[in-house]
C-alpha cells in the first residue's frame, strides 16, 4: 500500500499562482514561498471588507481514540467533494508541529487521497511561522531575564515568572530546568521550563488576532510575571510589544497551499487544543470565507474540546457564524466507547458499537445546544464490516440523524460526494441559529459550570481552594469578562480519561486557572496537562532520511 | 540623514526572477521565497560541474574596532563597482543572526548604498535557514536526552555530553542551566548550556559541506558525548543523521537576493568567526563562482581570524583558489591601533595613524604568506580629515602598496570604481599563487604553531597541561589530520585584546581544544570565548515596531 508520503510525492501540484488565481487574489496580494506555497497579504481583507462572508462548515468528532478519527482527512475530503459538486470551496486547517512529526506521528496533513500538499514541506518548517513564534517567545524570555539582570525596574518577583521558554520539539528533559546559573555575570538563577511551541500563548494570540494592530495589542496584554504583591507584569510594562510584532508580522499572514485535488487550502496556526483553543488562525478562516462560498475548517480533539472552543471563543471573537457542523465518527472509536480494548478494535463487534453510540449522541446534543445543524460523517476503515456498517446506518435512520459514510482517505473527493450533498442540503435549508453557550458577563465560575453541564454532561463542578482563590483574583484583575478555555482529557467527556462512552452523574474538578490575557481567555485546568510531550523509545525520526534526489523519506 | 533601513525601504527591487535570469539560472533551478528572495537548487552544480570557476576575491580587514570596519559594505560596494565596470559579478555573504540584531546591531547586511536587500527580511528570519539549524541542533539534544532516558544503550556518560542546545538570540540566562529536573518521569538531571545558533557545529557543517551527501556524512561524524572510558559517541552511533539531514535539506540551498544596485547576492550561512570559521557557506561561494566571472566574498573579523580560516579551512575543503584579497582599513581603526582611546577616534590624529599602520602591515604580510596579491581599501568616514587621508595615501605610495579610497556607503558602486579598477588590474595580472599555510599531515600542535607564528607574529605557543593532553587524545581519536580553527580575540593579533597595533615577542597560550569533527576542524581556544552573548541594558528591540502598513521600524 502506498504511504501518505508516496501519494503526496506522486501528486501533480498546480503552481500556487493558479490556486491564487482561483481565489481571485490580485497579484500584489500574495507572495510565493517556493513554487507550491504562498503567503497572502492582509490587504485582501481590506479590499473585501464589505464582501459578505461565505459559508463556514466546522468539522469536529466524537471523543477520539489515540490514533485520531481522521478529522483533517474528512475536512479535506469534504472540500474536494464539494468542488466535485461544482462548489467554490476552500479549507482552513492548522499547521503541524515538528515535535509530534519527529516523535510519533510522522506527519499531520490529512491522509491518503485527502491530504494537503506539499506534504513534506508543510510537515517540515513550512513557511517558518512556528519558528517565528518560537523566536518571539524565547526573545521575550531573554528580555525578561535581561530586565531582571539589568536592575529589574518592573520589580518582577523571580519566583513568580509565568512566561516559559519553548521549542517546537518533544523534549521532556526541558520540562523543568534551572536557568541563570554560572555566577553573577550569567544572570539570576531561577526555575524555568520549556513548553512545546504550539502551547505558547503567542501561538494562541496569533490565531485569535483580527488584524496586525490587534496582534500587537494582544501581545502587549500578555502577562509574563508577577511582583511580590502579586500584581501582574505585562509585555507592555517591559516595552517589547513592537519588537514581538515585528518578529511575527510575516508569520501572521495566512499560508496558501492546495489539497491533493487542487482545492485552495489555508494552513495557518496550530495551537494546542487543551491549554489553548485548538483551531487554525481566525484570520485564515475569515480570509477563506471572504474568498470562497464554502470554507471547511476543523477544530482539535472531540466536540467537547475543539468545537466548544471554536464556537465559544474563536467564532465569538471573529464574528464567525458557522452554517453547519460535521461530526466525524469511526466504528473503531464507537467500539472503544462501547468497552472494547484498543488491541481488539479491528474485530467485528456490533454490540460494542451499539453501546458506544451514546458518545456520539452527547456530541450531537452539544452541537444542537449551540443552535447548529449537523451531519454525522462515518470515516470508513478497511476493518469495518458490513454488519457493523448496517447497524450504524439503521441507527442513524431510526434516530432521524443526517449521516454519510465516507471513504475519502482511499477515494479522495469521490469518497465524500454523499457527505457533500448532505452538507449542501443542510446549509441551504438554512437551519443555523448559532449562539455561544454563555454570555461573557457571567462570572468565570458560572462560565465553567455552563460548559461542564451543557457540553460534558456533568452534574456540576468542584473548584479546589486554589482555583477558587484564582477566580477571585482574576476577577479582581479585571479578567472576569474573558471566555474560559477548558483543558481537559480528550478521551472522555469527563475529566477521567478512562470514563468512556457517555459518563453520567459526575462532577468536574477544577484544579487551577491560568490567565492567557493576550490570547483573550482564561485557561481552566481539570487535570494534569502536558505542555511538553516526550519522545518514545523509537522516535519516528530514526526512520527519516533524504534520498539521492533530495526527497524526504520516512514521513508517513 | 537616512538610516540603512530608510535607504533599503526606498530601494527599487527587481523581481528575483530577473536576478535569477541574470545568472543564467534555468527555471527549475530556483524557487521564489517572496518576490525578492529565492533558494537555488543544487542541481545547478551538477549542470555546471565541468564549467570553470570564476574569479574569487576575498574581502578581509585589519583588526577591527568594536563597530567593525565595514567589510560587508565594501564587499557589496566593490561588486556594484565591478558591475558598473561591466563585469559579470556576484557577492557571497553570511546571513545575520537575530541575536545581535535584537541586541545591539539592529541589522547586518552592509550599509548605506552598499547593502543587500530586502534588508528587513534578511535580518528577520530570512528564508528560515538559521531556524532550521536551531531546530536540528535542539532535536539532536532531545534525541540524546531521550536516548539516555530510554535506557542509554550507547552508554553516554551524562557528565560528558559536549553537545549543547541553542537559540538564535542573545540570552545570557541560558549559558549555564540544569535540565531534566522534576523527577523520574521528566528525564535525567544534568548540566547543560545554550549557545547562540550561529555557534552551533551544525552551522559550521552546513557551511563546509560540498553536497547533500557530504552534509549527511559530516552530520553523522559529529561527536555529541563521551562514554565513561572517554571514547566518543557520534550522531551515527545514535542513528539520527538521516533525520538531521531531512531537517536541513532546504536550509542547505543557497539563498539568492540582490544588492541595492541589482547585483546578484548569495546570502547563506553565518558561523561564528571564533569557535567556527566565520565565512558564508562553501556551497554558496562555489555556486556564485560557477555562475559569475567575479565572486566577491568576505570572512569574519580581521585577516588573522576570518581570512586565515577562509584560506586554511574553507578554500582547502572547497578547492577554492582566490585570485585576490581586499584588506579593508579605516582611519578610525588605524588610530585605535596607534593608541587613541575609542571615544577620541573622530578627532584628527595623523601621528596615531602613523603608529597604527603597523597593524595593517602585519595583515599584508600574512596575505602575502598565502601567496595572494591584495589591494588595501580605505573605507572612508565623514570624520576622516584631508591631512589624515593624505598621510595614508603617501604611506601606500611610498610602500608600493596597491590601495584605494572608497566611499561605497554614501555613493554605492560609484564610490568604489577605483577599487574595482585596482582589483581588476590585480586579478588580470594573475599574481595569485595560493597555498594554505600548512599541510594537513602536521601534528595539531605544529599547525597551531604555524598559525601563531606566521599569522599572529607570535614567537611561540604555550599549551596548558590540559590542552597538551587533548592534543594527544585527539590524535589518538584519529582527528590529528584536521585543520585547526583558532578562537582568539578579534581585537588584537595576540591573545590579549588590549595589545593593539602590532604586538611582538609574545606567546599564544592554548587553553583548550574542542573537536568539531563533523565540521572538519579542531577548535583551539586561546582565551574565554563567548558562545552566547548577552543583551545590553537597552536592547535594540526596545525601538523596534511595525508601522500601519506592516513595514519594519527600528532596524538600522
Automatic annotation (TrEMBL), chains A, B:
Q: Which PROSITE patterns match?
A: FTHFS_1 (PS00721), FTHFS_2 (PS00722)
Name any one GO molecular function. ATP binding
Q: What class of enzyme is it?
A: ligase
Q: Which GO biological-process labels does this protein carry?
A: tetrahydrofolate interconversion
Catalyses which reaction? (6S)-5,6,7,8-tetrahydrofolate + formate + ATP = (6R)-10-formyltetrahydrofolate + ADP + phosphate
User: Which annotated residues bind ATP?
Assistant: 65-72
CDD domains from the xrefs? FTHFS
Decide whether keyword Ligase is in the record.
yes
Q: In which pathway does it act?
A: One-carbon metabolism; tetrahydrofolate interconversion
Cite the entry's keywords alphabetically.
ATP-binding, Ligase, Nucleotide-binding, One-carbon metabolism
Query: So which domain of life are we looking at?
Result: Bacteria
- According to its UniProt record, which protein family does this protein belong to? Belongs to the formate--tetrahydrofolate ligase family.
NCBIfam families in the cross-refs: PRK13505.1
Protein name as it appears in the record? Formate--tetrahydrofolate ligase
Please name the source species.
Pelagirhabdus alkalitolerans
**Gene encoding the protein:** fhs
